[in-house]
C-alpha cells in the first residue's frame, strides 16, 4: 500500500503556522473575540478617564498671566481654560474672504492675544468640559474676552453672545466678511478635539 502523496498529507507545519488561527476555526474566533475584548477595555478606560476628568473638582476662579492656546482657549495660572459660550476657528482652519483663502484659525489665536494684551486675566469657572478643561467667562482689565472675540467677528456664538454675533454679522467683521465653515462642523470633519 502506497502512502498518501505529500500534497494530500496533513502537514504539521501548517498547523503550527496559523492553520487554526484562521477566521472560521474555533481558535480564530477566540483570537478575534479576545482582540475585541481588549479593544473594548481600552476604549472603556479612555471613556472613564474623560468622564472622571469632567467630574474633577475645580476652582471658582483663576487669575494670572494668560497666554492663548487658540482662539477660544488659553492658559491662566497653569490651568487650561476654554472660553464658554463661544467657538473660534481651529488653528489649521482656513476661511475665504474676497475669493482668497486666509488662515482664520491663526487670526483667531492672534486676536485673543491682542484682546488679552499684557493684562492680568480673571476667569470665573462654571464647570469642566469632557476633556477636563475649565469652562469660564474671562476678562482682562475689565474687558469681557468671550464677548470681545464674538464682537470682533473672529468667533461665533456657541450658546451665549448672540447679540454680539448679530452685531458682527451685520457689520461684516472678521469671519462675516467672507465665507467660513462653522468651527464645530470643521472639527467633526477633521477629527479635532475642542468642543464645548
Describe this structure in words.
It is built from six helices and eleven strands. The N and C termini lie far apart (79 Å). It is extended. It is α+β, with helices and mostly antiparallel strands and 196 residues long. Strands 1, 2, 3, 4, 8, 9 and 10 form a seven-stranded mixed sheet that branches. A two-stranded antiparallel sheet has the order 5-11. It has a two-stranded antiparallel sheet with strand order 6-7.
Topology of helices and strands:
Layout lengths: L11 H5 L9 H30 L5 E4 L1 E5 L2 E4 L2 E5 L2 E2 L7 E3 L2 E3 L1 H13 L4 E8 L5 E7 L2 E2 H7 L4 E2 L4 H10 L11 H8 L6
Parallel strand pairs: 4-9
Antiparallel strand pairs: 1-8, 2-3, 3-4, 5-11, 6-7, 8-9, 9-10
Helix pairs in contact: 4-5
Short description:
The chain has 196 residues and is of the alpha+beta class. The chain folds into two domains: 12-55; 61-190, OB fold (Dihydrolipoamide Acetyltransferase, E2P), CATH 2.40.50.
Amino acid at each position: 500500500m502506497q502512502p498518501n502523496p505529500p500534497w494530500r498529507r496533513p502537514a504539521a507545519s501548517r498547523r503550527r503556522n496559523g492553520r487554526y488561527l484562521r477566521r472560521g476555526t474555533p481558535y480564530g474566533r477566540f483570537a478575534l473575540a479576545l482582540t475585541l475584548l481588549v479593544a473594548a477595555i481600552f476604549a472603556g478606560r479612555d471613556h472613564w478617564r474623560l468622564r472622571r476628568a469632567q467630574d474633577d473638582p475645580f476652582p471658582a476662579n483663576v487669575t494670572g498671566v494668560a497666554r492663548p492656546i487658540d482662539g477660544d482657549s488659553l492658559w491662566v495660572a497653569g490651568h487650561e481654560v476654554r472660553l464658554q459660550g463661544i467657538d473660534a476657528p481651529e488653528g489649521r482652519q482656513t476661511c475665504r474672504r474676497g475669493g482668497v483663502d486666509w488662515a482664520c484659525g491663526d487670526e483667531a489665536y492672534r486676536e485673543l492675544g491682542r484682546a488679552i494684551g499684557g493684562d492680568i486675566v480673571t476667569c470665573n469657572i462654571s464647570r469642566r468640559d469632557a476633556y477636563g478643561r475649565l469652562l469660564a467667562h474671562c476678562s482682562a482689565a475689565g474687558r469681557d474676552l468671550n464677548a470681545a472675540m464674538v464682537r470682533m467677528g473672529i468667533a461665533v456664538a456657541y450658546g451665549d453672545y448672540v447679540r454680539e454675533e448679530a452685531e458682527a454679522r451685520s457689520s461684516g467683521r472678521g469671519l462675516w466678511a467672507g465665507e467660513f465653515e462653522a468651527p464645530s462642523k470643521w472639527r467633526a470633519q477633521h477629527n479635532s478635539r475642542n468642543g464645548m
